[in-house]
Structures are given as structure tokens and as C-alpha cells.
Amino acid sequence: MKDKVIVVTGAGNGIGRAIAMLLGAQGARVVVNDLGSSGSGDGRDSGPASTVAREIAAAGGIAVPDTHSVAAPDSAAAIVRTAIDHFGRIDGVVNNAGILRDRIFHKMSDDEWQGVIDVHLNGAYYVSRAAAPYFKAQESGVFVHMTSSAGLIGNFGQANYAAAKLGIVALSKSIALDMARFNVRSNCIAPFAWSRLIGTLPSETDAEKRRLARMQSMTPEQVAPVAVFLASEASRDVNGQILAVRGNELIVMSQPRPVMSVHRAEGWTLDSLAEHAVPAMRRAFTPLDRSPDVFNWDPI
Questions:
Q1: How far apart are CA 293 and CA 275, in angstroms?
Q2: Do 21 and 8 touch, CB atoms closer than 8 A?
Q3: How many CA atoms, within 13 angstroms, populate the side-chain half-sphere of residue 272?
Q4: Containing H/E element for 173?
Q5: Half-sphere exposure of 20 (CA within 13 A, CB side)
Q6: CA 83 from chain center: how many Å?
Q7: CB-based contact 135:184 (threshold 8 Å)
Q8: Whether 161 is catalytic
Q9: Rounded CA gap, 122 and 260, in Å?
Q10: Taking the CB of residue 120, how many other CB atoms lie within 10 A of it?
Q11: Helices in 62-158 by DSSP H: which ranges?
């Protein structure tokens, strides 16, 4: 990673901070981007980005803070310009910025929906799109995007977050396909780690308290090496993939593929669908039950 220029969004806290710190320790030049908002996206503060940049410098690394928002095209492009203005190039983007505005679906407001989509999905697109022409011109570059098991599997009260996070997977796959010819790679990480956003999850019942206790044992520093690996030449053969990190466990996630097929030469009617197709589909259905006993998988 020596002298590689990497932008890390949402790098003022948690997983983003851990990734930025490790990049700095590995010799990368880091743009520490963080708006400094609350977990729900309110307000702004230059402190988190500046603090992390100073910590990287104090440890012998090179970093510059940036406080532009990822959620609009112009400000996202300004993040990439920070890298160009300070270091003359850009070699990688880690799309980590995020907020939560959880609400059960039938009570979710348009603002709660749009705010989360803007930061997670649109933000990943805007920053990636701003970096793409530089990557194409130099015929190298890497994107690392943060997805979530909330999108890959589903979760209660997070329709906005889940939709954005699964959208990021599709975005990453499309970037990987479109830009492979220019030696540009794009991959996703679904992280399990204690962070500021996870601290907003409910902890009222015994089951919720046990779940949060498990999460607190998983640290952002366990996710950071995977992100830095994906940003490095060591992962040059990894493209369009989804890796989950749960503590010290690295998981390669499956991606949607056909699981069953039923053919009827004369075509389908409503009656034949009910008689033949539905029983076949039931055998292939994934259970909707979100209990830990079924999935043993807490969404992050």
C-alpha cells in the first residue's frame, strides 16, 4: 500500500477509522472523509476527520481530513478532488459512510427513506463515479464498498437501510463488470463489528442484550485488514465478490443464482401454477423466519 492514495468515507469513527488507521500504518496516503454528523445524519463537525488524520500522522503516516458530504454529486466529487489536490492521484475508494433511520415499514417516512438511500447508495455511487475517470485514465484502481447482512438477508425495521445495502451489491457488481477492462476492481464487505451505529440498536429484552454483548466482542479492527487487503494488489484476482467479516471469521457470501426450474410445454395457467409450480417453489423457498436459530446471523 506504500504511497497509494486511498479515500475512506465515514472514517471519523468505527470501521472507517480502523480502516484509515491501518492504511496509514501500511504506507498509504489517506483522505479521511467524515461529515461529522450524528448516527442519524444530523449536524456536522470537522472534529472526527481531523482527529483521525492527526492520529495517522502521529503514528508516522500521511493523511488529510475532508468533511464533504457523500450524499450529493458536487460534494462527493470534492472528496475525490481532495485526493487529487493533495496527493496528485487516487488509487482507491472505500465507501463506508452511513447513517441509520430505523422505522417499521408501515410507519417509515419519506425523509427516513430518502436520507438513508442518499448516504449509503447514492453516496457510494457519487464518490465512485467521481473516481472512475481517474481510474480509467491510469488503468488501475479499486473500490471497496460496505454492504450489510440486513440487505443480503433482511432485517426488521430497516427497509431503507436494507434496500440501500443490497443496492450497493448490485452497484459493485456492475462496476466490476464495466471497469474490469481498465484493471479496476470492485468488491463488497458485510462487516460484523461494534460501532457507533450498532449502539443505536434496541437493548431492552434479554435476547437483545445478549445480541449486543456478542456484537461488542467484535471490533472494527477485525474488519480493517480485509478492507486493506481488498484495496491492495494482493487481491488482484478478487473482483465482484462479497466477503463477510465476523470477528476472526472470513466468509465468502453466495450471490443470487437459479435454485429451481419448472417447465411446462403447453405453458402455464393459473390452475397449473397452483398445482405444479407452487409445490416446487415451496421446496426451494428460503425461510422468512429471522430468528437467530434459523440464520445464526445478526444483521449489521
A1: 32
A2: no
A3: 8
A4: helix 159-179
A5: 34
A6: 21
A7: yes
A8: yes
A9: 33
A10: 31
A11: 73-87, 110-117, 123-138, 149-152
Alpha carbon 146 to its chain's center? 1
- What is the amino acid identity at position 99? I
CA distance 148 to 169: 9
Q: Give tens-digit pLDDT for 93-116.
A: 999 999 999 999 999 999 999 999
Q: How far apart are CA 52 and CA 34, in angstroms?
A: 10
Q: Chain-centre distance of CA 8, in angstroms?
A: 11
Residue with cell 449489521: 300
Per-residue pLDDT tens digits for 178-229: 999 999 999 999 998 766 566 555 567 776 677 666 767 789 999 999 999 9
The string of pLDDT tens digits covering residues 41-77 is 787 789 999 999 999 999 999 999 999 999 999 999 9
CA–CA separation, 260 and 262 (whole Å): 7
User: Could you tell me which of 283, 230, 275 has the C-alpha nearest to residue 26?
Assistant: 230
Which residues contact residue 132 at a Cβ distance below 8 angstroms, ignoring those fewer than 6 apart?
Answer: 141, 175, 179, 184
Which strands, in side-by-side order, build the sheet including 184-192?
A: 62-66, 29-33, 5-8, 92-95, 141-146, 184-192, 242-246, 249-252
* 246 vs 157: CA distance, rounded Å: 22
